[in-house]
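Hi F.,

I've been meaning to write this up properly since the lab meeting, where we talked about keeping a consistent format for the predictions we share between groups. The idea is simple: the sequence comes first, exactly as it goes in, then the structure tokens exactly as they come out, then a line or two of notes. No screenshots and no reformatting. I'm using this chain as the first example so we have something concrete to point to.
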Amino acid sequence: MAVLPIRRTRRSARGTPRWTPTVAGHAPSRFKQLLKHVALIAALIVMLYPLLWMLSSSFKPQEEIFSSAGLWPEHFTLANYIEGWTALAYGFDVYFLNSLIVSVAAVLGNLFSCSLAAFAIARLNFRAAGWILGVVLLTIMLPYHVVVIPQYVMFSAIGWVNTFWPLVLPKFLATDAFFIFLMVQFIRSLPRQLDEAAKIDGCGPFRIYWRIILPLTLPALATTAIFTFIWTWNDFFTPLIYLNEPSTHTVPIALRNFLDATGQSSHGALFAMSMAALAPVVGFFIAAQKYLVEGIATTGAKG
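Output, unedited:
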């Protein structure tokens, strides 16, 4: 470390000058920061390139998508968006509405059921609480494909195939162990004196949950809502199993219908509708990203 000649900074209480050395170490640190920023920008470009290519291709004619090497369209057109919106059996607004219904219902179901289960495990004093949490965590390691056939047989016997119930009902039964664990960790960080004060005022367990605990778990609830919405909106496998009628298809299945294995695939319309399908997810994430970061940070720090 190089040391420059000493210089006068300020006088002491007795009037004698105080001398301090000046360290010349700013240049290497600034160079390291510059390298970090360049590396991050390069990584960002690599990650965003497929999205930028799809956005560019959505404005290109069909014959120009794979023949043109540049990102900027040589012939700008909106025909892909117009064609994609009306190319399938139903207008794309039908598929958007189906996905919206399923996603919003899944969010409401997870918020209520997972928070209620987490409150019971974290706050109610009963012997099996630890065992129940352990079983809940074990279900995270269970592959979803193991239970697909039994669930399909059960819902088929009830007559719920080609309906939204198989996609929505499990969310109201606290089947997402990850969100239960997330909320258990958050609720355990809250002081129990709040529960004791509420009991003195005559509140029962459910009223404590509804009036005291639930408002304080807003960051964890926001995190649950964001991840549930994104995962449900992008889910392809589960709707593919239960939704066979075109009128009940969600957005991921509708996008798959643009690719025909036996005929000509409409890549331009596919890319255009893919960009349209990204809009709700990106908008929802941008609107709630503050709560997402706060929920993850507080849960990880206190949990």
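Notes:
The beta strands are 7-11, 17-20.
Residues 1-9 have pLDDT under 50 and may be disordered.

If this format works for you, I'll send the rest the same way.

G.
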